[in-house]
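Same chain as my last thread, 257 residues:
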Amino acid sequence: MTLSVAVWLVILGALVLANLPFLLERPLAPWPWSRATQSLGSLARWVVGLVFLAALALWAWGTPRLVGGAFGGVGGLFFIVKLLVSGLLAFGLLYFPGWLAGRKAAAAAQVPHGTAQSEHMTAMAALMDEAVRPAAADSTAQAGQAADTAQAVGRAAVVSSEVAQAVSAADAAPPATRRPNGAAAKAAAKGKPFIDRFLELLIGYVLVGTFGFTFELDLGNAFPQGWEFYAVTLALFIVLGYPGFVWHYLLQRRRHH
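reply #2:
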């Protein structure tokens, strides 16, 4: 791989990962306070978050050494294979929080078995009781009142038939198509807070920097860098994410208003 190709790959990767947190509502990190870990206990949330950070640190430490520094001189094709494997591992780290949040959303969207049926049966029983109660309360009613009662019973029977059809349709519908509860709908509409997006932006910076050092080790020797290098490159990375910030916080807000 030549130097120009490696530079362009780093630039394109930085452009994508800098804007991804603003373009996706899907969480990219399982923070203990995020909706990705809401289905877990308080201790499990911190454990999952710390394990995620440990896996990210291990990946960032091992990728330059195992992909860019190991087996030097074997050939460009083997380097590309190792790079693809490392990229798949990074994709798995970013995919896991969204998968965890998707499990919670699917569980919240499911209606408990028999809930809809019991509610409809209760409504049907109330209608039947309201229709039959006048006949039971006044056993000496005239023929006209009996006819009215019969009509009310007939209307209740029609309503009960419609309720039964609604129950069958609700039971036949898959769990994913049923309405979620109010809390899940509100959380889904709210989206990710800004702090989560900014921390995901930092994770993208770590990923891009790791691939940059990997390319540097493959092309030659990696040079040690001071804090000035990381401050400047982080500022440039944040600037690359400005289009996604404008699209999410300015254009979308203006469109909603």
